[in-house]
Specification:
Elements lengths: L2 H13 L6 E5 L4 H16 L7 E6 L4 H17 L4 H13 L1 E4 L7 H8 L4 E5 L3 H14 L6 E4 L7 H12 L7 E3 L6 H12 L13 E9 L8 H26 L8 H13 L1 E3 L3 H4 E7 L1 E3 L2 E3 L17 E8 L9 E6 L6 E8 L10 E2 L5 E5 L4 E9 L6 E10 L7 H11 L8 H19 L5 E5 L31
Parallel strand pairs: 1-2, 1-4, 2-3, 4-5, 5-6, 7-13, 9-19, 15-18
Antiparallel strand pairs: 7-14, 8-12, 9-12, 10-11, 12-13, 14-16, 16-17, 17-18
The structure holds NADPH dihydro-nicotinamide-adenine-dinucleotide phosphate.
Length: about 500
């Protein structure tokens, strides 16, 4: 796609909705707001690409105007260091006009009155505990919201297909679907457009992108961070809900969908939805799913306690810190190809990538020696990288097959993940947001697994913190490092 077309699509996406005039953050004193939301917002403003908007913080306790002003001032001061000249002016304008509002969003009428008092359209960011967000939305149905209001909901969005449906039904009474933003902050523009660009702008890949040529697709999101004091959230979620349900299924959809006609949100999200509707976890969950929990260990020289000894963890909940699912996609293109999705914490190596393994060639000419390894394409996430692993001849004996790795870095957005989220919210472009039907479908896919795990059908295994995961899992092998050769298949004897 040439630059002009891309610019006009991007412009069309944005011009269909009015830019929000106020960003209202509910949960001004919260962790998300201080650690991720405000820095992302400040980076967006500092880029100079957006016009100033009003920033309003709100909370139920006595957090107060002074603390809010100080919070904004300190985050914006950091962002100024990297800001453009225009960006610095925007930061200053937004900082100077920010305000704090005391509100109990669970008290009838209070949130609506607050929205009315702000310059519209207002983007309402629910940086609140999920149950509080849900209650606030329910109450808003009684009063409605002014036209043009945008609602931004954090993960987890519901806790089951039914609860996601219920929440969607409430939201649908408030605003049109394109004004609802369900945040997946890991799904950055870099990830989305790099995958789509790679797949659909290269004649080389698309013809082999199917069950005719691909053996399996693995998507990893292994973190070397442990619980980081987030037991209150994580112990009720676990790796499957935290990452696979909410994020890795989206990445899988991008890797597997058919080519959309354009990059507009309708086209793209229709294709994501259609792909996910064809997906399910293969029944026989003891074979197609795995779960494990870390025990005491060491990561980068730091001692990590056993998960069950972390403050705030209830061992009886049997929360998994590492999860793996095998998904099947029942359509012409993908029937028979396993998509393996794995995510976990406290692992010895940070590994965020999609690894596409191709089938062996149908016939290798007689006379080659060495090891015939499968062709692999690896797409790394944050940092965004691309790596093709192929067989070549030599060195030395030209009849011997050896491995070559072609690697490059891919470009990415200059914004922090929450800067990208807020860019879409303010512009009224829901491209990166999870559409309601898709959120429900992601729950539909994982729900049978959650039930099987609750029923104890799949053992909860263990792995020491700092290891690669349970050693019996094929995905815990050492060969997965980006930049290094991976597992080998001995060459069949050639006569
Ligand atoms: P916190 O517990 O740190 O903050 C919750 C906020 O909600 C507080 O500011 C609190 O304000 C406010 N609040 C609670 N009840 C009310 C009420 N009745 N009326 C108005 N405000 C209220 O939570 P987090 O910031 O960690 O998480 C917020 C959301 O973001 C959650 O949905 C979480 O799942 C999600 N999330 C968080 C991430 C993180 O890293 N923290 C990452 C990804 C998602 P006050 O004390 O003034 O009542």
């Amino acid at each position: 796609m040439n630059e002009q077309t891309a610019t006009s699509i991007s412009h069309a996406r944005r011009s269909s909705a009015a830019t929000a005039r106020t960003l209202l953050i509910l949960g001004a004193s919260g962790d998300l707001t201080g650690r991720l939301l405000l820095p992302g917002f400040a980076g967006l403003l500092g880029s100079g690409k957006v016009r100033p908007v009003r920033l309003a913080g709100a909370g139920s306790s006595g957090y107060g105007e002074e603390k809010w002003q100080e919070r904004v001032r300190s985050v914006f001061a950091d962002a100024e260091q990297k800001a453009t000249t225009e960006g610095r002016e925007v930061l200053e304008q937004v900082r100077a006009s920010t305000s704090f509002h005391e509100v109990d969003v669970t008290a009838p009428g209070q949130l609506r009155s607050l929205i009315d008092s702000l310059e519209g359209p207002v983007a309402v960011y629910f940086a609140l505990p999920p149950a509080v967000s849900e209650k606030a939305c329910r109450l808003l149905v009684e009063t409605g919201v002014p036209e043009g209001t945008r609602l931004v909901l954090e993960k987890p969005f519901g806790s089951s297909a039914q609860s996601a449906r219920d929440l969607n039904a409430i939201l649908a009474q408030l605003v049109p679907e394109r004004d609802v933003f369900r945040v997946d902050h890991f799904l950055g523009k870099g990830t989305v457009f790099n995958i789509l660009g790679l797949r659909f702008a290269n004649r080389l890949l698309e013809p082999v992108w199917s069950n005719l040529h691909i053996e399996k697709v693995e998507i990893f999101f292994d973190e070397d961070l442990a619980l980081e004091n987030r037991a209150g959230y994580y112990d009720n979620a676990g790796a499957l809900r935290d990452m696979i349900q909410s994020h890795l299924l989206q990445v899988m959809a991008l890797l597997a969908l058919n080519a959309p006609a354009s990059l507009g949100e309708r086209n793209l999200r229709d294709h994501i939805g259609s792909l996910l509707r064809a997906a399910r976890v293969k029944p026989g969950y003891a074979e197609t799913t795995r779960r494990a929990r870390y025990t005491a260990g060491e990561i980068n020289g730091k001692a990590i306690p056993s998960y069950t000894d972390e403050p705030g963890v209830d061992p009886a909940k049997n929360t998994e810190t590492l999860a793996e699912l095998e998904i099947e996609i029942n359509n012409m293109r993908w029937a028979g190809v396993p998509f393996i999705l794995r995510s976990g914490k406290a692992l010895g190596r940070r590994r965020k990538e999609a690894m596409i393994t191709f089938k062996p060639v149908p016939h290798l000419p007689t006379g080659f020696h060495g090891v015939d390894e499968p062709t692999r394409l690896r797409i790394g996430f944050s940092p965004e990288t691309l790596q093709l692993e192929i067989d070549v001849n030599g060195p030395g004996d030209i009849f011997t097959l050896d491995r070559a790795v072609l690697a490059t870095e891919m470009n990415t957005s200059n914004l922090l993940p929450y800067g990208e989220v807020l860019d879409g919210v303010l512009a009224g472009d829901p491209l990166l947001s999870v559409r309601g039907d898709i959120a429900e479908d992601c729950w539909r896919i994982v729900e049978p697994v959650l039930h099987a795990w609750e029923a104890g059908e799949v053992p909860l295994e263990e792995y020491p913190a700092g290891s690669l995961g349970p050693s019996s899992w094929p995905t815990s092998c050492d060969g997965g490092q980006l930049g290094a050769p991976v597992s080998s298949t001995p060459l069949k004897p050639t006569v």
